[in-house]
Amino acid sequence: MITAKALHKSYGDKVAVDDLSFEVRPGMVTGFLGPNGAGKSTTMRLMLDLDHGGGETLFDGRRFSAIRHPMREIGAVLEAKAFHPTRSARDHLRMLAAGSGIRAARADEVLEFVGLAEVKRKKPKDFSLGMAQRLGLAQALLGDPPTLILDEPANGLDPHGIHWLRDVLSSLAAEGRTIFVSSHLLSEMSLMADELVVIGRGTMIYNGDVQGFVRQFTQSTVLVRSSQADRLAAVLREVDGVAVEARPGDVLRVSGVDVDAVGELAFHNNIMVRELTTQTASLETAFITATAAAEEYVAHQLTGGAA
Ligand SMILES: Nc1ncnc2c1ncn2[C@@H]1O[C@H](COP(=O)(O)OP(=O)(O)OP(=O)(O)O)[C@@H](O)[C@H]1O
């Protein structure tokens, strides 16, 4: 269990992390989500006592700096390419293993596990970003730690690699580990996470399960198809708070009412319905709604006149 309490960090006048508190529970993957510049990396550095700031983070009741063999307790990767410049991938891991009292053979095991066995004698500086991410994960797993903290581990992975990572993280979580992974991409997170901590401009926007996030930040609509769509639209528009949008193909998109009520109204008014479904907005829509006001970097229209 990770307990982050009142984390805070300012750079001059700029507040990067603003009184952030949350818990990360074992046995599941918790996604740490926020737009670019929201404060995810800064939060992770604060959690690992790599940065000075306010608040504290406890890992099963202890601060990171108080843990004797951190690699055996917390596998953390904050930068994908932070490897020794001249050593091979294998030697890099063996060196780290030796420093933490981990047997040397473990380096080969984790390299095999992340799919880098064939390139283990190559230098990481020649690795692609995706290979570096795999090596980062190997490094995090070296001490077989019960807790993993990974900053943007899917960055640079191809779709196949992202699915692989999802399977790896969920099987590691199923073993009872505590897993905290950041991303600025909802599409990745929706594949990987069970729980979410969503931040914007350093403050908490949402903490809870993925479905709850969608429920809180999206409105589901009802799609109904009927050859008497005009009549049904008129009936629905008489209900308070209901909005109806006519779509091509005798379809109505209805909001402000649930699917049961639409079915009942149609039945009582003798209107034949051929299709009736609830449409829930995607996680991507929920993310954009939730973080719109908190976006750090907003693109603006380019006005001409370069010459
Ligand atoms: N060393 C620094 N000096 C000044 N400002 C900084 C420094 N590091 C981060 N910041 C600012 O703090 C805020 C949070 O940055 P951080 O890198 O933690 O965000 P992030 O959520 O990890 O972003 P991204 O998804 O783009 O990696 C940003 O506005 C950033 O510009």
UniProtKB/TrEMBL annotation:
Residues 2-226 form the ABC transporter domain. The keyword Iron does not apply. The keyword Nucleotide-binding applies. GO terms for molecular function: ATP binding; ATP hydrolysis activity. Signal peptide: none annotated. Gene3D superfamilies: P-loop containing nucleotide triphosphate hydrolases. PANTHER family: ABC TRANSPORTER, ATP-BINDING PROTEIN. Belongs to the ABC transporter superfamily. This is ABC transporter domain-containing protein. It comes from Lentzea guizhouensis.
